[in-house]
């Protein structure tokens, strides 16, 4: 019985993942908006505070992380919205496969087209803020661990507000307090690397939080969707 069930669950996961990736790449405007927002937000700060390299180095880690956080938040409202509008979300919930597996596939697709691209673009912004090359590994590592966690936590708020017509503001209020520890650890890790201090401890905490998120967030997302749909 277990041998016949496991492949079908994995197959359903892959189907939902492939479907969401196709939809994201068809809607290229929605795909590019978070990336453009990420670059614009980070680019405005040097214009506002001045071109002094020492100042930009001091604030660079925080600005990059805040820009990544806001860009992720910008793309979360559409995570379940289109499926809710066309009725496919109800079909997913009625699927015989576990809902937490299917929502995990949707979150993974969201991260691949948003968070992963932010990670790839981050070295460009690091050069803009005169971060030393020795801090690049810390920057990439924190974003690789932190952006999936942002997607997981954000999906909880998106699931709870998917049934509301204007749930973007409420979703932001629900999610932003959960993002604060991730922001503190991410910026602290990069600042430690810039100053030549040990930064592996920050990564361990981010990794532990990511493991907790992967373990428990899909169940919270599933519960949030059931509350929104039934309500």
Structure description:
- There is one protein chain.
- With 231 residues, the protein is mainly alpha-helical.
- The chain has one domain (2-230).
- Helices cover 85% and strands 0% of the residues.
- The chain contains 10 helices and no strands.
- The chain has helices spanning 2-26, 28-49, 53-76, 81-86, 88-93, 99-113, 115-128, 136-161, 168-194, 200-230.
- The longest helix is centred in the last third of the chain and has 31 residues, at 200-230.
- The protein is elongated.
Short synopsis of the structure:
The chain has 231 residues and is mainly α.
List keywords for this structure.
single chain; 231 residues; mainly alpha; 85% helix; elongated; membrane; cell inner membrane
Q: How would a crystallographer describe the biggest sheet? A: none
Strand content: under 5%
- Kindly give the count of domains: 1
Number of strands: 0
Order of helices and strands: HHHHHHHHHH
| Helical segment count | 10
Low-confidence spans: none
Average pLDDT rating: 88
**Amino- and carboxy-terminal Cα gap:** 35 Å
The general outline is: elongated
Q: What topology emerges from the helices and strands here?
A:
Elements: H1 2-26, H2 28-49, H3 53-76, H4 81-86, H5 88-93, H6 99-113, H7 115-128, H8 136-161, H9 168-194, H10 200-230
Helix pairs in contact: 1-6, 2-3, 2-7, 3-7, 3-8, 3-9, 6-8, 6-10, 7-8, 8-9, 8-10, 9-10
């Amino acid at each position: 019985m277990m041998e016949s069930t496991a492949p079908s669950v994995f197959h359903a996961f892959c189907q939902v993942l492939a479907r969401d990736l196709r939809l994201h790449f068809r809607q290229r405007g929605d795909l590019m908006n978070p990336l453009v927002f990420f670059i614009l937000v980070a680019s405005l700060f040097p214009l506002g505070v001045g071109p002094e390299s020492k100042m930009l180095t001091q604030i660079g880690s925080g600005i990059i992380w805040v820009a990544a956080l806001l860009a992720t938040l910008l793309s979360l409202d559409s995570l379940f919205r289109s499926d809710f509008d066309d009725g496919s979300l109800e079909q997913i919930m009625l699927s015989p496969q576990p809902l937490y597996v299917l929502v995990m596939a949707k979150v993974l697709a969201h991260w691949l087209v948003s968070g992963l691209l932010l990670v790839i673009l981050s070295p460009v912004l690091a050069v803009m803020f005169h971060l030393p090359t020795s801090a690049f590994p810390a920057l990439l590592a924190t974003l690789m661990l932190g952006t999936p966690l942002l997607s997981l936590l954000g999906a909880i708020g998106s699931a709870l507000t998917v049934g509301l017509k204007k749930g973007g503001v409420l979703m932001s209020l629900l999610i932003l307090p959960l993002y604060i520890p991730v922001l503190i650890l991410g910026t602290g890790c990069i600042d430690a690397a810039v100053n030549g201090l040990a930064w592996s401890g920050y990564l361990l905490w981010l990794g532990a939080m990511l493991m907790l998120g992967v373990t428990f967030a899909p169940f919270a997302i599933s519960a949030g969707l059931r509350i929104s749909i039934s309500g």
